[in-house]
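Q: What residues go here?
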């Protein structure tokens, strides 16, 4: 059994997401299975190939959030949020424009 180390209670969810890395060039599909104000548990094929830091695109809220991987187990990846979440609709960054239509 894993020790519970998170500070905030996560709530179960099923949300479509995207793992975005390499200056927004590479995108992997994922499912957000649990979420809290400080982190999330993602389900992703090829979890061992997910980089240690990336942007998580939450398709439900249309926000891009910088995250750091804190654990991996099978197809699951635990991440912690850091930095500000950015709305892809409000951002002036041209690299985020393509996410507006996903």
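A:
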């Amino acid at each position: 059994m894993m020790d519970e180390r998170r500070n905030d209670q996560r709530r179960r969810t099923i949300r479509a997401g995207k793992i975005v890395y390499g200056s927004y060039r590479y995108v992997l599909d994922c499912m957000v299975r649990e979420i809290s104000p400080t982190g999330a548990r993602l389900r992703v094929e090829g979890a061992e190939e997910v980089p240690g830091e990336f942007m998580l695109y939450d398709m439900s809220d249309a926000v891009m959030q910088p995250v750091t991987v804190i654990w991996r187990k099978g197809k699951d990846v635990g991440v912690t949020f850091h930095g500000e979440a950015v709305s892809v609709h409000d951002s002036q960054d041209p690299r985020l424009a393509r996410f507006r239509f996903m």
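A: Context that may help when evaluating the design: The CA atoms of residues 74 and 80 lie 18 Å apart. The radius of gyration is 13 Å.
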